[in-house]
Amino acid sequence: EEGRYLRRVESPYVVPVYDAGELPDGRPYLVMAFADQGTLAARYDGSQPGGGTPPTPGQSLAVLRQVGAGLQALHDRGVLHRDVKPANVLFRTVEASASRGGGAQVRAMLGDLGLGKALDASSRLTMVAGTPSYVAPEQAQAESPDARADQYSLGALAYLLFSGRPAFRFTSLRQAADPAPPEPLPGHPEEVDAVVRRALARDPDDRWPDVTAFVEAVESALQRSAGPLDDGPTLPWLPLDPDLTHAGAGPTSGGRALSDGRGATSASEEPRDPPGSGGSLRSHLDQRRTWPYAA
Asked: Which of 148, 69, 158 minimizes the C-alpha distance to 107?
């Protein structure tokens, strides 16, 4: 289902899906772009490679623009994400255009639509799901969410980006269902705080008309208060993988890896067939390999 939703959208700010299929044992798989620069969550985690160095204000605005563009593209195609959070903001190295100075630059993409739903089916959702510190109250209460629920989650993401700390530290969806207003956005004037706070309104009717309107309001408020925040292109902070590919770990059975336990790290190091498999996994992937391996 995630693959179907992702393939509905053609946006540079949504993780692309190159292929989807089913393994011989019936398990589905997706072939997606490799996020070689990790996730936004890792940028705030000092134990992760490249972590402990949160984005600059200019980079934070660029991330918000790009994730907002990806989220709006999903909404325009009738898809609700339902789990916008730092771990689902992925970074990928791309070759910049000449007008942007050329060379390798980092782009933010929105990924993981495991909780995604079609907007026209959201009124029938009854399952409570989401990440407590980022989920909208109506979604945490198992009400019928719409695009404004994703906007709330983006507002919580914006709060983190511009303050360096989460707006909420909830540990359960019950807490998220009835949130108190967050503290004022530290380090920013009231105008910027008011824009983010509106996206985090308890009542969906009090939020911005759509994600684009929210992002534009944030940018305008920041420019009026602090001037332009363009830091120039965001350069990679992790070593570049020349192939920009990374095969996942081999299939598992009952928690036991069927391969040798190593995930392949480039196009030249492919998943290995489990002993006694007769080469079925490799042959199946070979038959399906119609997509660009170095995507």
From this structure: 69
Could you tell me where the DSSP H helices lie in 125-264?
A: 137-140, 147-163, 173-176, 190-199, 211-226
pTM above 0.90, yes or no: no
Chain-centroid distance of CA 58 in Å reads 19
Q: Is 26 left (phi over 0), alpha (psi -120 to 50) or beta?
A: left
Phi, psi of 231 (to 5 degrees): -90, 5
**Band (282; pLDDT cuts 50, 70, 90):** very low
- Do the Cβ atoms of 289 and 295 come closer than 8 Å? no
CB of 62 closer than 8 Å to CB of 228 = no
* Residue 177 binned pLDDT confidence (cut-offs 50, 70, 90): very high
Q: How many CA atoms lie within 13 A of 4 on its CB side?
A: 9
Candidates 44, 15, 43; CA nearest to 110 is 15
Tell me which residues are annotated as active site.
83
Q: Give the mean pLDDT of the chain.
A: 77
Contacts of 70 (CB under 8 A, 6+ apart): 9, 11, 13, 14, 108, 109, 110
